[in-house]
From TrEMBL:
Protein name: IclR family transcriptional regulator
Location of the IclR-ED domain: 73-251
PROSITE patterns documented for this protein: HTH_ICLR, ICLR_ED
InterPro entries associated with the record: ArsR-like_HTH, GAF-like_dom_sf, HTH_MetabolicPath_Reg, Tscrpt_reg_IclR_C, Tscrpt_reg_IclR_N, WH-like_DNA-bd_sf, WH_DNA-bd_sf
Organism, as annotated: Calidifontibacillus erzurumensis
Residues of the HTH iclR-type domain: 10-72
UniProt keyword list: DNA-binding, Transcription, Transcription regulation
Upper classification of the organism: Bacteria, Bacillati, Bacillota, Bacilli, Bacillales
UniProt key word Transcription regulation: yes
Keyword Isomerase belongs to the record: no
GO biological process: negative regulation of DNA-templated transcription
GO molecular function, one term: DNA binding
Amino acid sequence: MEQQKNATIIQSLQTGIQIIDLIAEQGHPLKFNEIQELSGITKSNLYKYLNTLTQLGLLYRDKKQNTYSLGSKLIEYGMAATGSKDLIGKVTPYLQDISRQTSLTALLAVWTHDGPVIANIWSANYGLNIGAQIGTNLPLLSSSGKIFATFKDMIYIKEWRLKELSKIPESLRKEFEEEQQEIAKNHFAYSKEPIVEQVSSFSVPIFDYNNDLLGALTIVGFTSLVPQSPDDEVSQYVLNCAKEISESFGYQPK
């Protein structure tokens, strides 16, 4: 881990943030020796950093597995940064129920200036690694990305949409634009996730009293287990959950 020599920064603070970034980039909990190998920090110093970050709630240490992952304090910061504290508070119980009822991973995606990001996750019991965690930016052709591209006001997403479209071939652009009509009609988007092979997802929108998109409720799992149609029993269950959440924010279907 390289240190920038600059009198205007606090290097120890920078190192602590770099450790958090390192764990976030890997997308799964890391053991001490893995962090040490990736960071290049001496063991004695790394112990101090990890202990401090854990005590502050910025990292979480699983004592049984002896691994480190992102801490709950980062969720609080994320909620404050996205202005989505009320939304996350209301959606979290639904994420828990959906995951328990379906044995799939449920997550909430919200909009930021960099595009849609994961704001909260409730993982299924079988330990599926979806290759993403809280704070992960989601691409246009993810199911969450499709929901934001379809329902979010173009004023807010224009630059992100153009940037994302430039990354995909013309054939996929046309396919996506045609698919948007069905997404708008059914309030349902499906995608074979570009982040991890053999993993798929579907997403449904959450609206407020002004019919503005608040977020996307997304279900993730192995492709064979994730429904591709809004008519599926699981899809209908999640759509009803999204409707209840939306109504709690004053949404009234047209």
